[in-house]
Write a structure and sequence with these properties.
By secondary structure, the protein is α+β, with helices and mostly antiparallel strands. Helix content is 22%, strand content 33%.
Amino acid sequence: MDNSAVGKYPCPECGGDLQWSAAKQALQCPYCGTVVPMPRAVPGAGDGSVGVRELDLLEALEDMEPGPTPPPLSGGAAGNGRLTASELLRSMASTPAEQRGYGAQPREVQCQSCRAISVFVDGKVADRCEFCGSPSIIPHESLGDAITPQSLLPFRISDGQVRDAVRRWYGTRWFAPNRLKRAALTDTLKGVYLPYWTFDARVAASWTAESGYYYYESETHRDSQGNLQTRQVRRVRWEPSSGSFRHFFNDELVPGTIGVHGDLLAQIDNFPTATDLKPYSPEFVRGWTVERYQVDLRKAAQQGLAQMQEQTEQFCARQVPGDTHRNLQVNADFSDRTFKHVLVPVWLITYTYGSQNYQVVANGYTGELAGERPYSMVKIALLTLFCAIVVMVLVYLGTLH
């Protein structure tokens, strides 16, 4: 096979490699502008037998344990042509890099400042880190045993839409420095695909607690003048209670990125991976930056389980009868645990103001936006002075009456 042709989809007009256009929602040639609808089956899109599907989590974790790697299996589970999680991981480990995951010869670089690893599949050259702006980037050797994405959410929000949203956002930041608001910083806008893990699980939980029921009693007391007064005092009657809870967690999201600030990502990570994922095709990522995960499957699975346990406790707490409760104890059993490794689209602005680094992020699929920005000490000082003057005037006017 000609490895240089793996995953390529040429422009019918000039022969250039077509790339995904968020504005056109189709493939577009970056050279001549020709727009081509995304075909249902793109050559070089990877193993079509895998597609968008869940993989058994416990099996995958067991397969990652140290020890000799069993030979690759063929034929799929029970001869039905489907890959198990174990078979998928083994097949990736034995497949040449240019044919694995990204569908083309990948090139990786790592930032020596924020440690993010960026993957390029189209020969793109970066002179600065896409995530923190540092020029300290060095080549990074690709790990052959890394789990590569099998599905993604393509960019749906265009850069023009994001630039307008960022300008509006900065326009409402009253205490931001004027220079920052005028520039709006959209010249540093970058589109990146971030790595995410998704986890499914069924939970069967039982809980016990003490339910509290409010009641009121009359109580007499003397006020500051010595007069006898009556007031209502709330009391709580405690009774034992118990119950059960069942739920299916569908695509609990855990980010695999270290390049984007986690508190910002949590504000925009409403990615519809349970309904809108597409099977991975290299045409979606050509011309875009892809971050390789650095939160591995084992660590992500622990975080995903902790998130599901916390939500289970919250669900059970809402079931406890009464006005309040205490001593809630939840015993949860999780089964049918599966996972996917996916890519999600994010627009990113990284900039330095003074000595601090800031980020602004936008969901490339829904348009949600969150950001960090500096504060103008001059504006804050002027507002404080204005408020002090207003208070002084009011006090002065009060003394005249």
